[in-house]
Amino acid sequence: MAGVLSSVPRYGSSYVLIVPTRLAEKIPGPNATEVANLEVGVRSGTDAGDAARAIGITHIRTYPLDGSPLQPLKDVADGKLDAAVIWAPLAGLGILELALDQGQVALFTIDKPHAAPPSLRAARVTDPCAGAILDALNVSGVLPAELLVSVDIRTFIGTPAPHFDLEQARAGAPIYEEFCSRCHGPAAVADPKGLAPVDLRISIQRFTYAGFKYIVLNGRPSRSMPPLRGTVSEEQIPLIYQFLKARSQELLPGPAKESQ
Ligand code: HEC
């Protein structure tokens, strides 16, 4: 993924201050006076140092640019450093790579969008995967880039569709409501004026389960269906599927409050 990010020169974003949760509890915000007492890691040759100084941080530990881009974050995780200031997309990547996504750290956005740091800048987009990300960014604005690397459909092709189960369909209704209804409408009916003019009651009959899952995970970014990998969990997808199956057979109404 670092290689892909490096090929996306227009992926501009801000710097974030990352602190372990135990310290975050004592810090009301990035401009709080407590922040000035932290020892903060930044990589030399990036704008991170300036971003840190701009919020009053004076105790700065500098990391060489040619070392691991995630070293400051790793030191925060290992308790060797109070905090780090990192370019936001890299911070997101690092949090995933170092498995810190279970609430171990807190992030504060501390400034405006920036271009990628020089170490991650590349002159031209040659990698097809990065090109696809760039297209999606141009179409949909900033999206977490890692969501746009396709899930390999071969890993679940042939997975049988879950057996229809009305209880599971009922459990799927609020999940559908939460993640899909704002575009597909509360009752999954095609709405020519809606954001997604497809009738999911019909789509669900047409797609194999693998195809359905693939679209939910990867979206169709060029046509405004966002990738929902990381948003919708592996356990929720079959329940949404069950709900749509039930809708397609009119076994369940749309969510009550909006169904009429
Ligand atoms: C931000 C809006 C948005 C959200 C949220 C969204 N979709 Fe979509 N979806 C779309 C659009 C727009 C299309 C039509 C894309 C196209 O024309 O190919 C679409 C297409 C689809 C298709 C393909 C339909 C077909 O017949 O080609 C499926 C399946 C689908 N969405 C399922 C879901 C599910 C399930 C959820 C919730 C987990 C969801 N979508 C959330 C916008 C959205």
Task: Note down, in words, how this protein is organized.
This protein has 260 residues and is an alpha/beta fold. It has 2 domains: 147 residues, 3-Layer(aba) Sandwich (D-Maltodextrin-Binding Protein, domain 2), CATH 3.40.190.10; 107 residues, Orthogonal Bundle (Cytochrome Bc1 Complex, Chain D, domain 2), CATH 1.10.760.10. Helix content is 36%, strand content 9%. The protein has a 5-stranded mixed β-sheet with strand order 3-2-4-1-5, with helices on both faces. Helix 7 crosses helix 11 and helix 9 crosses helix 11. The N terminus is likely disordered. The structure holds heme C (HEC). The site of heme C (HEC) has 21 residues, from helix 8, helix 9 and helix 10.
Structure in a nutshell:
The protein is an alpha/beta fold. 36% of the residues lie in helices and 9% in strands.
Please give a handful of descriptors for the protein shown:
single chain; 260 residues; alpha/beta; D-Maltodextrin-Binding Protein, domain 2; Cytochrome Bc1 Complex, Chain D, domain 2; 2 domains; five-stranded mixed β-sheet; elongated; disordered N terminus; binds heme C
**Beginning-to-end CA distance, first to last residue:** 46 Å
What percent of residues adopt helix (DSSP H or I)?
25-40%
Q: In the CATH hierarchy, what is the superfamily of the largest domain?
A: Periplasmic binding protein-like II
According to CATH, what is the topology of the largest domain? D-Maltodextrin-Binding Protein, domain 2
The percent range for strand residues is 5-15%
Bound molecules: heme C
Number of domains in the coordinates? 2
